[in-house]
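tool_call predict_complex ligand=zinc ion
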Amino acid sequence: MSEQFECHSCSTRYNVTELVWRCKCGGMLDLVKENVSFDPSRLQNEMPTMWRYQHVLPFKSDIWKSVSMGEGNTPLIVLDEKEPKTFVKVDYMMPTLSFKDRGAAVLIAKAKELGVTKVIADSSGNAGTSIAAYAKRAGIACDIFLSESTSPKKVAQIKAHGATIRAIKGTREDVAETAQQAVTEEKTFYASHVYNPFFYEGTKTYAYEIWEHMQSVPDTLIIPVGNGTLLLGAYYGFRELMESGVTNKIPKIVAVQAENCAPLANAFITNQAVAEVKNTGTLAEGIAIAKPARSAHILEAVRATKGHFITTSEEEITQARVELAHKGFYVEPTTAANYAGYLKYHRTSEEKIVIPLCGAGIKQV
Ligand SMILES: *Cc1c(COP(=O)(O)O)cnc(C)c1O
Ligand SMILES: [Zn+2]
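tool_result ok
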């Protein structure tokens, strides 16, 4: 049977083709998975990359081999000897210096498998960089829509990979809307880290790697959330591990947003549907998403794990960045925002916690 997407709102199904990315009702699509079963004996130990989990990734061919840049299998280490149960996963040790490479490698390899020759994406920075790099490597033309206020260093990185930059005046939401119009008008593949379900098939390897390195499942994941690509990937990954019978629990997900742009945290706390907020300005540009398209998925995942939200102020973000640098880790402010969330989190002495270091410090001044 061919691969299918299913609408999260109305359950309509679509065959996976080049141009399907949203339901006719406007709902978000999920990938339909028939019996994903992870078998530890099928791990490809010769590959020190995320492709060691190839048998749970959605490919019919080996085309991904020509697209991969050796992403994944990032270090999981104790942050500080004084807190031996808190681990950081150094996900900025990736080809384009952010965790987005997990998703982009899978999404672009899938596009290549589908015969796509051009993609469009929109991003606040790191996803665009990652899509641009993998598209170029795959020989696929790429237009990246971004806001005029994107960090110059990220714009330079995207340009270096030969993508066409289409800078838009307006909010992050205006950028996405303009990109979607172009996708429709130009009949182009939408390589969106938010809309395209294959991106999450890449980010789910975050969970598999944690499980493999620990040989168990941590109690808690602290995860920064804007559009939720890491949060949902982690949730899907741990859910698959549980459904495959190799673990019997899913970690609690504690999601972190910047106080100045916190639509999901607000909705969670007030128990209401997500309403668009005004981004009043935050250093954490990677999670400054005023209206996350997959908000229903994200709230469901956090609730299903009995997790909750934490918000962090600009002062806390700045201070947390200094503290991480003093432990040896130079991260971008968005990653510091997440660490600041950890510092505010009330943990027990027994709790095993994993914190991702999502983006490298040199990406943003
Ligand atoms: C993209 C990104 C995030 C947030 O990911 P979402 O998918 O938007 O939730 C956090 N940190 C960094 C460095 C990022 O690039
Ligand atoms: Zn629908």
